[in-house]
């Protein structure tokens, strides 16, 4: 509480509240005129109807950055949230994105009108082609409906809400572990959430047998969340052969695939390669959902650009599904934000800009792959106990180090390194300059901490 | 379908052809959804080839040439921010800067509530997103409550609270006979609602009727809310756009704050800054103290996170660039007044045209109502005639978006309205 004895002339908050209460108790001129309008004594208390609301815990992932920002140490390192950083540790706006923005800004004919509920038409078509392939028969048959959504989160939520209303088996299976926000998204949408085994701590790789067993015992028709590539948080992906087996199993039980594609192009550096898992499923003629995000691969994080595609059996079904997706979106935010989608469309539809993007995307992916190698080499040269090959086997932005929460806390306290307590590090936050510091910290944590 | 279910873990299939025929169509039962009554109007308008067509449907501002407008202050703000900033994630609660400036608009530059940090506020996806966040919050933290919604209201309000699973009730608002406010009916409903009910109020420029309570009436409403201990959520989508003066348009809110109400407020920059497609707005909830505000804000963020994680940055940057630069803010205020004045001018012109045509009906309400919309009083059948015979597009409740009226089409519009209404 601000004290009342400062030299300012303005009253303290406490004084102001007391005078407000006094005004209430004394009543207003209206009260004298009509006794029915006299203020009831209890109404003057002005208790909030939300008095019982408790403070929510910090989001575990975003909370890491909050803690990092508070740390005054000059050697602090933020390996928490998955946003790409350059070698200099700076956020990156792709050159091709800057170009696209300038084009948009300089075009005086552009207006800021509402987009349709389903978003920017160009953007939707181009996004579907990007993820499914330009020659996808599903697109050619008009069997795909694509709606612009607010990045990956928004696409997942809209898809989940649709399923909650129109699908017959309201259980979704998510991999163990997965991005923390998945369970909240599906839960709020009204789906029951179950898990399937995915990560094997012993090998720091895929628990393929466990995965097949768990999906094999799922009820007929259940929804299954699949990370298209660069699994978050583990970086562990199935091989092409393993994907094929997963596909066969799922189709045999009519399990409905819901792909989360947040890293297309970012994982291997090649857009088509990173979409293979999805295309494999679409090729067999079956149905699926795909949530796409441009946050990482185009660096458009804060613009909230994404798309939900639903691959259906027929054009007629796709059209009806689209009309129902609109009913989900309208009471959520009416129509999606225009800026980010316009940037994406500008780039995707221009051949030269598209190629420029591919080059910049590959550079980001290559830098991350290089960081993996450097960290692996640094740990080996320190003779850090343990097998660290998973660092170079895992793919994408994150590495699941295998460090436990005590070791993580140790690294934060002693070395000012910030990461989520599950031991996940964002490789994008590393640079050649900071790899040694991280290697030292891991080495110390493994040899000293529990 | 039994043959599709494999017992045991064998998962080899004869061929991919078998897999193709096994996948069933999950969505065969999905019905085509009804078109949105408001946005469907523009779709129909766009599909009409007639050169005489007029769109007075959706509430987006048009200049006197019928063209959409990007405000100069917005263009300047965009020039400044293009290529400058990075596109990192905003915090879940959005741009702190933008939210602070936005609170000043609603609560006043020198608001004690802001000074005392008693307002929980987050950036939201325009007015829709702000209302939805509040509805979800209301469901979670006042699970037994209902929402009282005026009759009529923006149709999407019903969708929002329905999808948030909050039961709805209505209260009297529009008086068809006078084409004004049913004040007695409203006050009765306020009195008869159980103590501590939640009410949705349009702060100014009621959508779709354009009918607002007078200052005196707002004071009485506020008083009765005090007696009953009701919660007021203000939906303010037209601040500045109604009278041309943002301070004046916030009067209803200020009256409630003077009386000590702990209100909620949904704000939108879609119309008053012309940022429609950017989806920029704000949801605020006044709390008893700063600690409670922190708690409430954190819970609002918990609801935003599984919906879209964090809000879009571009529109927020435009807003904060404009509002934190005194010259740009002045320019904005001038441009907002310009838009409001043009609409007020069109109201006068439409009324005068109808009177000149010798219409037997009273069109007083055109100039008494305020904001973007005029509730003409026309029936759905008359509206259909306007569309089919005159290629004039509006929602079937007779709501005219005055922003779509220009000096070029006001005569045509008046003539058409006269034609379909002159026999009664």
UniProtKB/TrEMBL annotation, chain A:
InterPro entries: Aminotransferase_I/II_large, Asp_trans, NHTrfase_class1_PyrdxlP-BS. Its EC number is 2.6.1.1. It catalyses: L-aspartate + 2-oxoglutarate = oxaloacetate + L-glutamate. Its cofactor is pyridoxal 5'-phosphate. PROSITE patterns: AA_TRANSFER_CLASS_1. Residues 76-442 form the Aminotransferase class I/classII large domain. It holds the Pfam family Aminotran_1_2. One of its GO terms (molecular function) is L-aspartate:2-oxoglutarate aminotransferase activity. One of its GO terms (biological process) is amino acid metabolic process. GO terms for cellular component: mitochondrion. Keywords: Aminotransferase, Pyridoxal phosphate, Transferase. The keyword Transferase applies. Belongs to the class-I pyridoxal-phosphate-dependent aminotransferase family. PANTHER family: ASPARTATE AMINOTRANSFERASE, ASPARTATE AMINOTRANSFERASE 3, CHLOROPLASTIC. This is aspartate transaminase. It comes from Salvia splendens.
From TrEMBL, chain B:
Keywords: Aminotransferase, Pyridoxal phosphate, Transferase. It catalyses: L-aspartate + 2-oxoglutarate = oxaloacetate + L-glutamate. GO terms for molecular function: L-aspartate:2-oxoglutarate aminotransferase activity; pyridoxal phosphate binding. Homodimer. The lineage of its organism: Eukaryota, Viridiplantae, Streptophyta, Embryophyta, Tracheophyta. Its cofactor is pyridoxal 5'-phosphate. Residues 53-417 form the Aminotransferase class I/classII large domain. PROSITE patterns: AA_TRANSFER_CLASS_1 (PS00105). Its EC number is 2.6.1.1. One of its GO terms (cellular component) is mitochondrion. It comes from the Eukaryota. In eukaryotes there are cytoplasmic, mitochondrial and chloroplastic isozymes. PANTHER family: ASPARTATE AMINOTRANSFERASE (PTHR11879), ASPARTATE AMINOTRANSFERASE, MITOCHONDRIAL (PTHR11879:SF54). This is Aspartate aminotransferase. Belongs to the class-I pyridoxal-phosphate-dependent aminotransferase family. It comes from Salvia splendens (Scarlet sage). GO terms for biological process: amino acid metabolic process. Transmembrane segments: none annotated.
């Amino acid at each position: 509480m601000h004290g009342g004895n400062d030299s300012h002339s303005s009253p303290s908050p406490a004084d102001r509240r007391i005078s407000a209460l006094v005004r209430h108790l004394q009543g207003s001129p209206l009260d004298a005129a009509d006794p029915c309008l006299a203020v009831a004594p209890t109404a003057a208390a002005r208790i909030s109807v939300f008095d019982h609301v408790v403070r929510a815990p910090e989001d575990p992932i975003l909370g890491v950055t909050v803690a990092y920002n508070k740390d005054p140490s000059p050697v602090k390192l933020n390996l928490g949230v998955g946003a790409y950083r350059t070698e200099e540790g700076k956020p990156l706006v792709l050159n091709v994105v800057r170009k696209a923005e300038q084009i948009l800004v300089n075009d005086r004919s552009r207006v800021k009108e509402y987009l349709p509920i389903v978003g920017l038409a160009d953007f939707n078509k181009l996004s579907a082609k990007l993820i499914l392939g330009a020659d996808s028969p599903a697109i050619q048959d008009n069997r795909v409906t694509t709606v612009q959504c607010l990045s990956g989160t928004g696409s997942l939520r809209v898809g989940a809400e649709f399923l909650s209303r129109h699908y017959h088996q309201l259980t979704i299976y998510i991999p163990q572990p997965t991005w923390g926000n998945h369970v909240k998204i599906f839960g709020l949408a009204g789906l029951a959430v179950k898990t399937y085994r995915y990560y094997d701590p012993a090998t720091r790789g895929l628990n393929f047998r466990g995965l097949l067993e768990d999906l094999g015992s799922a009820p007929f028709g259940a929804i299954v969340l699949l990370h298209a590539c660069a699994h978050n948080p583990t970086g562990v992906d199935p091989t092409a052969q393993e994907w094929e087996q997963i596909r066969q199993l799922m189709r045999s039980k009519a399990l409905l695939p819901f792909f989360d594609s947040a890293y297309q192009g970012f994982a291997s550096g090649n857009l088509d390669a990173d979409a293979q898992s999805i295309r494999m499923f679409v090729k067999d003629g079956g149905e699926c959902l795909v949530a796409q995000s441009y946050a990482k691969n185009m660096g458009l994080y804060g613009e909230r650009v994404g798309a939900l595609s639903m691959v259906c059996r027929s054009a007629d079904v796709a059209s009806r599904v689209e009309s129902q997706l609109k009913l989900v979106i309208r009471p959520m935010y009416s129509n999606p934000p225009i800026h980010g989608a316009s940037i994406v469309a500008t780039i995707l539809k221009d051949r030269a800009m598209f190629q420029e993007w591919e080059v910049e995307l590959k550079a980001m992916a290559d830098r991350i792959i290089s960081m993996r190698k450097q960290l692996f080499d640094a740990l080996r040269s320190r003779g850090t106990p343990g097998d660290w090959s998973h660092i170079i086997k895992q793919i994408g932005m994150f590495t699941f180090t295998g460090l436990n929460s005590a070791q993580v806390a140790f690294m934060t306290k002693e070395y000012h390194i910030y990461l989520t307590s599950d031991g996940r590090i964002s490789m994008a936050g590393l640079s050649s300059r900071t790899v040694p510091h991280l290697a030292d910290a891991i080495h110390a944590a493994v040899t000293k901490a529990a | 379908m039994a043959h599709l279910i494999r017992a045991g873990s064998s998962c080899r299939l004869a061929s991919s052809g078998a897999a193709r025929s096994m996948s069933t169509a999950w969505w065969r039962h999905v019905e085509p959804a009804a078109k949105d009554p408001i946005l469907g109007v523009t779709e129909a308008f766009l599909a009409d080839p007639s050169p005489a067509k007029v769109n007075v449907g959706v509430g987006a501002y048009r200049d006197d040439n019928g063209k959409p407008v990007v405000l100069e202050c917005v263009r300047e703000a965009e020039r400044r921010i293009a290529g400058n900033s990075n596109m990192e994630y905003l915090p879940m609660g959005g741009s702190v800067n933008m939210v602070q400036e936005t609170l000043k608009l609603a609560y006043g530059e020198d608001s004690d509530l802001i000074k005392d940090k008693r307002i929980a506020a987050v950036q939201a996806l325009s007015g829709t997103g702000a209302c939805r966040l509040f509805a979800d919050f209301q469901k979670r933290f006042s699970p037994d409550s209902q929402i009282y919604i005026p009759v009529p209201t923006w149709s999407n309000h019903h969708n929002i609270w329905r999808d948030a699973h909050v039961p709805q009730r209505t209260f009297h608002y529009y008086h068809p006979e006078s084409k004004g406010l049913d004040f007695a009916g409203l006050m009765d409903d306020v009195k008869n609602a159980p103590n501590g009910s939640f009410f949705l109020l349009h702060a100014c420029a009621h959508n779709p009727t354009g009918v607002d309570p007078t200052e005196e009436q707002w004071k009485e409403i506020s008083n009765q809310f005090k007696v009953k201990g009701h919660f007021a959520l203000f939906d303010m989508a037209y601040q500045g756009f109604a009278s041309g003066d943002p301070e004046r348009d916030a009067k209803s809110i200020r009256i409630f704050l003077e009386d000590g109400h702990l209100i909620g407020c949904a704000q939108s920059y879609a119309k008053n800054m012309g940022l429609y497609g950017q989806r920029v707005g704000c949801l605020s909830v006044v709390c008893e103290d700063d600690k409670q505000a922190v708690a409430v804000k954190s819970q609002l963020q918990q609801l935003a996170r599984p919906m879209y994680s964090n809000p879009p940055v571009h529109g927020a940057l435009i807003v904060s660039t404009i509002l934190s630069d005194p010259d740009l803010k002045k320019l904005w205020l001038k441009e907002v007044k310009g838009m409001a004045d043009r609409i007020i001018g069109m109201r006068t012109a439409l009324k005068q045209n109808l009177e000149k045509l010798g219409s037997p009906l009273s069109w007083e309400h055109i100039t008494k109502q305020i904001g973007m919309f005029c509730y003409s009083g026309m029936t759905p059948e008359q509206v259909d005639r306007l569309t089919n015979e005159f290629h004039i597009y509006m929602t079937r409740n007779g709501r005219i978006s005055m922003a779509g009226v220009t000096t070029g089409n006001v005569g045509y519009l008046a003539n058409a309205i006269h034609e379909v209404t002159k026999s009664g």
